[in-house]
Write a structure and sequence with these properties.
By secondary structure, the protein is an alpha/beta fold. The chain has 21 helices and 27 strands. Strand 22, helix 13 and strand 23 form a beta-alpha-beta unit. The structure holds adenosine-5'-diphosphate-glucose. One of its GO terms (biological process) is amylopectin biosynthetic process.
């Protein structure tokens, strides 16, 4: 709903009075960052990307819903001369603009120090003053209500995958959902990722993305490379797809049946260069995102972005006010290539040190191996303004030799800018009361549909239909990280019990073959679904009683969150995000009513996994009310993205408080 138009005026803040849920405008005086630092504790966020201290009016337009606003926001749309927007727009309502005038505010010397919106008639009460930098500004002088200052960011996600356009795992989920959650909170958000075409049905996911006819040249790999950009605006987000022939081939985003693509360094270097250009050259909604933005580089594929900002743009005055955050979803993959490939990255020659990496002697492959390499993720950790990992537990683990994959010392040295924020889950996609992929729906108050999902799953997979038999599920990549070797060693013994075990996964060939072998050995108890299928993953999540996750390490883990939402009880190795999100069952707590949402075990071993699963199975069989309590407590947990988005906003604010990364010799030069 369009309600209020504002002009493009810096230093305006929009303030919500939560008590009466009535939006009102309050004046924020012109201040430097320092004043806002003082407000950190009492504001939802306090920094902006696109125009410092200009507040996007989108929140106001939508009366808090944040659902509108095409790439560029309402006021941008209105000022667009060429009307070239492909975004939906907030149509301005002139009627609602009449009440506001702009008033300059001057200090004793007469210098303008701020602006305020002045009501034209009789509404002074709605525009109470917010004195800057004073702690008591949290309370409205008139009503005593708390004041929240809404300041919006211009955020650019750079990622190798974003659901629903591309997804091979959790990275796709997060980069599909978090941008939407931030856009819904009023931020201007762009996601830049490749336009993968593999000749299969998944190509149609890009069908609505239109060519922006903005061919752009970037320099890397010894020459000029040309990319083009496709764009779709949906759910408040500008989805920008980088197009290049190297993204058009059969397979997944990273490889095919023969393994990882040999030119991945090229493909993702290109992505990073293109992503750095996108905010400068793409007129989304009529206006570019501009230089004062915040880049969120996800994992190593996007890790060159902070390095490029620091090495290629900032020294020349571009992106001087931008900030970057490296979001680590998985430290095990760092984009390491031989040192001679440095020249491919399109970085100035004197920046080698940023990505320089020397393997320890024990990790070298032969006597003449000097261990020299380039490490893109390391470069990102060095040059990014902030670092986020996807859970607090993991943010601690990566600073230890056990969890740091060789980067623990570097990460420890950057602890002051390192934060862990637990992922959320998409409550629309993953909701047992409305999930389009499952045969019956159910809720916290009526669980009857869950057993129907279980029966349907047993039928679908050709297992004996036995609603009373405990059904254990596993969903995930079949690799070392997921503890698949431990699962493999425990399965024959688990099959001696009266349980059913269903696995969905793809990955290493040996594990896929093993799943087929297990199926032939235990036809009544085991089913392995080799491949990647989102609908099947939903049906296993809904139809299982227990979800097992013996991950060796798990930065956050999404499947345990989905499982809890679906009343499926997780049994997990106590590590990283699994430790943070699954609360161990205690039947004696709460005067015998119990507490906890699943079982955690540690250390990771076949014996401990089996013991935890047996306790879970025993509880399922013999303690029905305890089981129902476990299911319900899991379903009640709030892992919505909105929670996580608020924490991201906080870190965005901190990113802008500090000056951006500048290489030390440049500091000295000045
Ligand atoms: N065969 C299959 N068919 C269908 N769907 C499948 C599938 N295999 C996996 N999935 C889906 O892919 C996602 C996997 O997410 P995870 O968070 O568990 O792991 P992943 O290791 O990919 O992500 C990394 O990034 C995420 C996001 O930050 C972190 O949570 C995680 O710890 C980190 O390892 C889930 O949505 C799951 O349902």
């Amino acid at each position: 709903m369009a309600t209020t138009q504002t002009s493009r005026i810096p230093f305006l803040g929009f303030v919500e009075s939560p008590a009466n849920k009535c939006w009102s405008l309050k004046k924020i005086r012109q201040v430097g960052f320092a004043s806002f630092v003082g407000q950190r504790n009492r504001t939802q966020s306090f920094c902006v990307g696109r125009s410092y201290f200009s507040s996007s009016p989108r929140r106001i337009h939508n009366n808090g819903s944040g659902s509108g606003g095409g790439g560029g926001g309402g006021f941008i749309q209105k000022n667009c001369q060429d009307g070239s927007s492909s975004s939906s727009s907030n149509v301005e309502d002139d009627q609602n603009n009449k009440g506001l005038l702009l008033g300059a505010e001057r200090d004793a010397s007469g210098a303008v120090v701020g602006f305020s919106l002045i009501p034209q008639s009789g509404e002074e009460k709605a525009y109470a003053k917010v004195p800057n930098g004073e702690e008591d500004a949290t309370a409205d002088a008139e009503t005593g209500d708390n004041i929240y200052i809404e300041i919006n960011y211009t955020a650019i996600f750079v990622t190798a995958e974003a659901a629903p356009y591309s997804k091979t795992g959790g990275l796709g989920d997060v980069c599909g959902s978090l941008p939407r959650a931030l856009a819904a909170r009023g931020h201007r958000v762009m996601v830049v990722s490749p336009r993968y075409l593999n000749g299969g049905p998944s190509d149609k996911r890009f069908a609505n993305a239109v060519d922006l006819h903005c061919p752009t040249k970037v320099y890397c790999f010894g020459g000029v490379q040309e990319v083009s950009f496709f764009h779709e605006y949906s759910d408040g987000v500008d989805w920008v797809f980088v197009d290049h022939p190297s993204y058009h081939r059969p397979g997944t985003p990273y490889g095919d049946v023969f393994g990882a693509f040999g030119d991945n360094q090229f493909r993702f270097t290109l992505l990073c260069h293109a992503a750095c250009e996108a905010p400068l050259v793409l007129p989304l909604g009529g206006f570019t995102y501009g230089e004062k933005c915040l880049f969120l580089a996800n994992d190593w594929h996007a890790g060159l972005v902070p390095v490029l900002l620091a090495a290629k743009y900032r020294p020349y005055g571009v992106y001087k006010d931008a900030r970057s955050i490296i979001v680590i979803h998985n430290l095990a993959h760092q984009g390491v290539e031989p040192a001679v490939t440095y020249k491919n990255l399109g970085l100035p020659s004197d920046w080698y040190g940023a990505v320089e990496w020397v393997f320890p002697t024990w990790a070298r492959t032969h006597a003449l191996d000097t261990g020299e390499a380039v490490n893109v993720l390391k470069g990102a950790i060095v040059t990014a303004d902030r670092i986020i990992t996807v859970s607090q537990g993991y943010s601690r683990e990566i600073t230890t030799p056990e969890g740091g994959y060789g980067l623990h010392e570097l990460l420890s040295s950057r602890k002051t800018v390192l934060n862990g924020i637990t992922n959320g889950i998409d409550g629309n996609d993953w909701d047992p009361s409305s999930d389009v992929h499952i045969p019956s729906h159910y809720t916290l108050n009526d669980l009857s549909g869950k057993v129907l999902c279980k029966i349907a799953l047993q039928e679908e997979l050709g297992l004996p239909v036995r609603p009373d038999c405990p059904l254990i599920g596993f969903i995930g990549r079949l690799d070392f990280q997921k503890g698949i070797d431990i699962l493999l060693s425990a399965t024959p013994e688990l099959m001696q019990d009266d349980v059913q075990f269903v696995m969905l996964g793809s990955g290493e060939r040996q594990y896929e073959d093993w799943m087929r072998h297990m199926e032939s050995l235990y036809p009544d108890n085991f089913r392995g679904w080799v491949g990647f299928s989102v609908p099947v993953s939903h049906r296993i999540t809904a139809g299982s009683d227990i979800l097992v996750m013996p991950s060796r390490f798990e930065p956050c883990g999404l499947n345990q969150l989905y499982a809890m939402r679906y009343g499926t009880v997780p049994v997990v190795h106590k590590t990283g995000g699994l430790r943070d999100t699954v609360e161990n069952f205690n039947p004696y707590a709460q005067e015998g009513r119990g507490e906890g949402t699943g079982w955690t075990f540690s250390p990771l071993s076949r014996e401990n996994l089996l013991a935890a699963l047996r306790i879970a199975v025993g509880t399922y069989r013999d303690h029905k009310s305890s089981w129902e309590g476990l299911m319900k407590r899991g379903m009640e947990r709030d892992y919505s993205w909105d929670n996580a988005a608020v924490q991201y906003e906080q870190v965005f604010g901190w990113a802008f408080v500090d000056p951006p990364y500048v290489k030390s010799n440049q500091k000295e030069d000045k």
